[in-house]
Every structure is written in structure tokens, then in C-alpha cells.
Specification:
Strand content: 15-25%
Order of helices and strands: HHHHEEEEEHEEH
Number of strands: 7
Strand order of the largest sheet: 1-4-3-2
Structural class: alpha+beta
Shape: extended
Radius of gyration: 32 Å
Mean pLDDT: 75
Length: 236
């Protein structure tokens, strides 16, 4: 009995357990499993971020920083960039190479740097912007449908969508001068072109496979079910 009393006394001397976290009555009533509204919003926002697009943006930013470093090196060698504010000059073309630059709106675009030598021995360079592009062919009557889907899906990445008639060697009477209607997709930079091309190619391969199996009444209507179909084309 004495031992039991001493143990009870020692246990009574210990401080009661107190939690470091304080819960209100409502939290205790509903279990205390609560998140702040800011945390919930951040979690929902991260679901919509495409990691592939983040990788493209980081690559483009690195290319822009490298291009700026290259501009400083060119200025050391006397190749200053001419813009619309400078007077026109005449020179011989020495070299050229592709580059990227950021416009006034912060859009990263592709361009080509041309290096010139003047008659007096001076040096200058000019950056000529260009839009990389590729063509896609669709069945007659589906042009509007395809253009609407592309604008809705890749509006930020596509610079322009045009309709162009070009010669198609696959046509039976192409020597007569018959031309095929194509949709020309222009982009701000090469990285956007490669990204959208990778998204479109599974549908093209699927339609080519269907065309080999039998005639199809449409070509790119599979775009309308893009969100419902898987992009895995290993079987194709």
C-alpha cells in the first residue's frame, strides 16, 4: 500500500499533457481537420499547371539570358544592333545565326541575327524576326472546325492561322496545276511549334491508320474528342 501511494503521488506531481495546437469548438466538433483557404486555393491552382509548359518557359528564359550575354560580346567586337530608330546602312553580309528575343509585351520570339561589314570598315548587326510554321491538311469542309479547336486549345501559343493553297504531289493530276488547301500554323518560337506538334501528331497518326483501314468521311474531327481520348499512340 505504501508503494502504491508513493507511485500515485509521483504521478500526481507530473504536469498534465497540453497540446501545442489550440482548436476551437467548431474544429473539435468536426474533427479539427481544417485547411486554410489560401492553402486550398494554392493546391487547386497547382493542378492546372502543365509541367511541360513550365519546362518550355524555363528553357526560353535561359535562351533569352544567353542571347543578352551574346549581345554584350558582340558589342565588344563592334557589332552594335540597328533598329528602326537608326538610319539605314549598306554592308556586306558576313555571318548569321538563330536567336530569341523578348518584345515589348514580354513575348519571347524567334529571330535571326545578321552580321554586316560596311564600306568604311564599320560593323553592325540586325535582328530579323520570323515566325516558324508548319502545314496541316484537312478534308474539305472541316477547315472551320479545325481552326476553332486549335484557337480554343492553343490560342496563347499560336501566332496566326492561315489558309494556303499549295501543290500536292500526291494528287492524281498535280502536273495540271491542281492545288491542295492547307492550314498554316505560325508560332512565336520554335519551342511552341515543337510542343503543339507533339500534341497534334497522335491525332494525325490515328487518322492515317484509319485511312489505311478504310475510307473516312472526316480527318480532324477527332480533335473534338481530344479531352476524352488518350494521347498514347504506341499501338499506332
Amino acid at each position: 500500500k505504501r508503494k502504491r501511494k508513493t507511485k500515485l503521488r509521483e504521478m500526481g506531481r507530473k504536469k498534465p499533457f497540453r497540446s501545442r495546437y489550440s482548436f476551437s469548438n467548431d474544429k473539435k466538433k468536426f474533427g479539427g481537420n481544417f485547411r486554410r483557404k489560401d492553402d486550398a486555393d494554392e493546391g487547386d491552382a497547382t493542378k492546372d499547371i502543365d509541367p511541360e509548359l513550365e519546362l518550355i518557359e524555363s528553357k526560353l528564359q535561359r535562351l533569352v539570358t544567353q542571347a543578352k550575354k551574346g549581345d554584350k560580346k558582340d558589342e565588344r567586337f563592334g557589332y552594335r544592333r540597328l533598329d528602326s530608330s537608326n538610319e539605314p546602312q549598306l554592308g556586306w553580309l558576313l555571318n548569321m545565326h538563330p536567336t530569341v528575343y523578348s518584345d515589348q509585351n514580354g513575348r519571347i520570339k524567334s529571330g535571326v541575327d545578321y552580321y554586316f561589314l560596311t564600306e568604311e570598315g564599320g560593323r553592325f548587326k540586325v535582328t530579323y524576326p520570323y515566325l516558324p510554321y508548319f502545314f496541316i491538311r484537312v478534308n474539305e469542309g472541316t477547315e472551320v472546325e479545325v481552326e476553332q479547336y486549335l484557337k480554343k486549345k492553343f490560342d496563347i501559343r499560336i501566332a496566326a492561322i492561315d489558309r494556303v493553297y499549295k501543290e500536292d504531289l500526291e494528287l492524281a493530276n498535280h502536273l495540271v496545276g491542281l492545288q491542295q488547301l492547307y492550314i498554316k500554323l505560325s508560332f512565336f518560337n520554335v519551342h511552341d511549334l515543337m510542343h503543339i506538334r507533339s500534341k497534334i501528331m497522335p491525332f494525325i497518326r490515328r487518322n492515317q491508320h484509319k485511312k489505311e483501314e478504310g475510307p473516312s468521311s472526316y480527318t480532324f474531327t477527332a480533335f473534338n474528342r481530344a479531352d476524352k481520348q488518350d494521347d498514347d499512340d504506341d499501338d499506332d
